[in-house]
Amino acid sequence: MVLISSNLLNVRHPIAYSSVRVSNECPTIFSSNFQLPTAKNNVSPITHSATPLVVEEPHQAISFLLDRSKRYTLEESKQLHSYIVKLGSSPNIYFINTLIHLYAVDGHLVDARKLFDKMSHRDVVSWTTLVDGYAKFGKMGDAKDLFDSMLERNVVSWNVMISGYGKCGDVEAARQLFDQMPERDIVSWNTLISSYVWNGFSEEAFEMFRDAIIENVLPNKVTFLSILPAVADLGCAFRGGYVHTLIFKTGIDVDGVLCSALVDMYCKCDCLEMAFQLFASNPARRNVASWNPMLAGLVRCNSFEKALDLFRTMQLQNVEPDYVTMIAILPAIANLGAVGIGKWVHSYTQRKKIRVNATLGSALVDMYSKCGCIELSLQVFTMVEHKTIELWNAMVAGLAINGQGKDAIELFYQMCVANLEIDDRSFAAVLNACSHSGLVDDGLEFFAAMKDVYKISPKIQHYGCIVDLLGRAGKLEEAKDLICNNMLIKPDTVIWKSLLGACKIHGNVKIGEFAASHLIELDPSDSSSYVLMSSIYDAAGQLNDAIMMRKMMNEAGIRKEPGFSLIESGGVVHKFFVADKSHPRSEEIYTMLDEMGSKLKSIGYVPNTKLVLFDIDEVEKEAAIYNHSEKLAIAFGLIDSVNGAPLHIVKNIRMCSDCHDFMKLVSDIYNREIVIRDQRRFHHFRSGKCSCMDYW
DNA sequence: ATAGGGTTAG
User: Fold this and answer.
1) Nearest-CA neighbor of A500 among A654, A327, A355?
2) Domain housing A488
3) Cβ(A21)–Cβ(A30) under 8 Å?
4) Total structural domains within chain A
5) Mapping DSSP to helix (H, G, I), strand (E, B) and coil, where does residue A455 land?
6) How confident is the model at residue A673 (pLDDT cuts 50, 70, 90)?
7) Is A100 exposed, middle or buried (0-12, 13-18, 19+ CB in 10 A)?
8) Residues of chain A with pLDDT > 70: what percent?
9) A107 within 8 A of A139, measured Cβ to Cβ
10) Which three-class secondary structure state does DSSP give residue A278?
11) What are the residue boundaries of the DYW domain, all occurrences included (predicted)?
């Protein structure tokens, strides 16, 4: 794996790693005191001059006009226009062309056209500027009419037409013009390459790029900035390396922007190490856009802890997150259940007046849902103005995983009425809702409607929901029949695992063996098949078979995935493994755990040592049960939070039934709401009860 | 002296 170390960034953390919990795989992850950057108000980018133009003499108007760094409002452009008119009977053609440009770049095409028509003498630039105006605003009909009536064209005229077609999605037309044009320059090549990229034709874009190299066209920085996203999209490290080498060979200066594009490309080609090296060497590290691809890359590779670490480092360096950062980092926060950081990100958008559109809204809804804060998800959902199908899907899925099946179905119906195009993911969400809430009949109805009414052919995840649904309801034969006789796709490990999990709930050895054999055949290295089957045997009293299963696993050299629990406190995510003693406050934690044990026992709690398979005595079995990572995490949560605050835990594997009983009692005795997200679902413990109704 | 091509998310 890749080593991401903040040392590479030459960051000197101002805060000591006093309460850092470092896991085995991740050398530098969470440091204490998650710091909020100091708010600055200079955010909104200025696209137009804020103050009205003061033009004292015509000469000054000209320098305003020709200053390419400025953008003007329509009124200001008209003001400049009137000054130019005052200059005399035949104003310089340069000035008029620039005025046409001023009108055209902001889409004031009628004004631009009027000026163009009034000109007594026009040159190729006048024509091209207006053509470009039409092309930039999608009016390719007007652009083409004007382009066709041009008596004289140069390479720029052709390029603006190619660009126009490319931007409006007509790559065929763009390509035709490119082939027809009498001479091409590097901009022509760049334009066509980007046209392909924008429209998703990365392979074609790369072919174009290669043609350019073959034809000895010298690529420039823009060529590389255009082709790199295509290579990224293809995820082809080989071609990525080729492009990178060419950058070296052409001697082009790798500035911040080009470096960001390279980082992004390497991330998307799964070369995180290379990406990080480039990222660390980026000359523009004060720029957010250089951090965003690296963050997104880590998240994409499921390195959530490293992503959060980098996010923190970024803030220590006073680089302000932007909209793109939010979208990139929220899935990492969601995955780790770090709701404190999530809330901070949410409030940051409000403080910085970053508009929560449907995309950002979906990410926030997803994050809050995965942190078990469904009320906050609903709040965000309600606030977003133009709701997209993605947002609706995220909300339905959120209700589903939080066990609010009826609400999810209600929202799904609202979505149907809201005239949105229901897609396969909408059905996946609502089916998931049915399966989590045990709504068997509803689920089967939705499944049928999806196929028959909406004509959406089920994907593997839809089948997964139905198998889960049937299985959890105890209809194991029906579930098996669906898998064996009625699925149009080859069942994957998730399907078999669903069935096996159901067999565990309902204690069915026979179908369990059937599912386990398929599971082991498909993925012999997955420990969970052996572990699940072993516990099914154990529960059925077939102790010898249970031991045999464990033996099989051990002999194949398969290790059980170590269980861990995450709990966030004060902006830091703490990670606990089974019997973990490496936390700096370990002693306090174990003392707390003892205390909790006695309190619970005094009201009748009996540790369920039946779950411990090995032949050890009762005292040791009890200890083994107490060592489960979620118990350590909850003990830590109790001593490290204010009284009455809800505790959120994320676990990588499913909870055992003893931990489940334990949490119920803790929630009651300590008067705390406990939210635990395991591999499959949420458990909201309150006053001695769990939202899953002991059905999981 | 005026006109054209480009990075980060999903």
Assistant:
1) A654
2) 458-561
3) yes
4) 2
5) coil
6) very high
7) buried
8) 88
9) no
10) helix
11) 604-696
What pLDDT, in 10s, does the model give residues A227-279?
999 999 999 999 999 999 999 999 999 999 999 999 999 999 999 999 999 99
Q: Which amino acid would we find at residue A201?
A: F
Angle between helices A155-167 and A124-136 (to 10 degrees): 10
- Rounded distance in angstroms from the CA atom of residue A207 to the C1' atom of nucleotide B2: 35
> What does the alpha-carbon distance between residue A156 and residue A143 come to, in Å, rounded to a whole number?
14
pLDDT for the residue A101: 95
Identify whether the C-beta of residue A612 lies closer than 8 Å to the C-beta of residue A624: yes
Each residue's pLDDT tens digit, A491-535? 999 999 999 989 998 999 999 999 999 999 999 998 888 988 998
The identity of residue A249, as a single letter, is K
Place of tokens 């390479």: A155
- Give the distance between the most distant pair of CA atoms in chain A: 106
Tokens in use for A219? 């690529």
pLDDT above 90 (res A9): no
A384 or A59, which is more confident: A384
Using C1' positions and the CA of A195, the closest nucleotide is B5
Q: Domain ends where: A506, A526, A561?
A: A561
Cα separation, A677 vs A694, whole angstroms:
14
Distance CA A299, CA A295 (A): 6
Burial classification of residue A449, based on how many CB atoms lie within 10 Å of its CB (0-12 exposed, 13-18 middle, 19 or more buried):
middle
Q: Label residue A658 by pLDDT band (50, 70, 90).
A: confident
Is A540 in the same domain as A571?
A: no
pLDDT of residue A322: 96
CA distance A235 to A230: 9
Nearest nucleotide, CA A300 to C1': B9
Same domain? A537 vs A614: no
Of the pLDDT bands very low, low, confident and very high (cuts 50, 70, 90), residue A453 is very high
Instruction: Find, among A138, A74, A77, A142, the residue nearest to A113 by Cα.
Output: A142
Final residue belonging to a domain, choices A561, A576, A599? A561
* Strand B nucleotides where any atom sits below 7 Å of a protein CB: 1-10
Tell me if residue A181 falls in helix, strand or coil. Answer: coil
In angstroms, how far is B4 C1' from A119 CA? Answer: 22
Give the Cα-Cα-Cα angle A672, A677, A678 (nearest 5 degrees).
Answer: 130
Residue A68 near residue A343, CB atoms below 8 Å = no
Q: How many angstroms separate the CA atoms of A664 and A684, rounded?
A: 9
With b for 16 or more beta-carbon neighbours within 10 A and e for fewer, the A204-234 pattern comes to: bbbebbeebbeeebebebbbbbbbbbbbbbb
Residues pairing with A675 in the sheet:
A648, A684
CA/C1' separation A220–B4 (Å) = 15
Strand arrangement, sheet containing A572-577: A572-577, A564-569, A647-651, A674-677, A682-686, A689-690
DSSP tag of A419: T
Q: How confident is the model at residue A38 (pLDDT cuts 50, 70, 90)?
A: very low
Answer yes or no: do A535 and A572 share one domain: no
Distance A128 CA to B2 C1' (A): 11
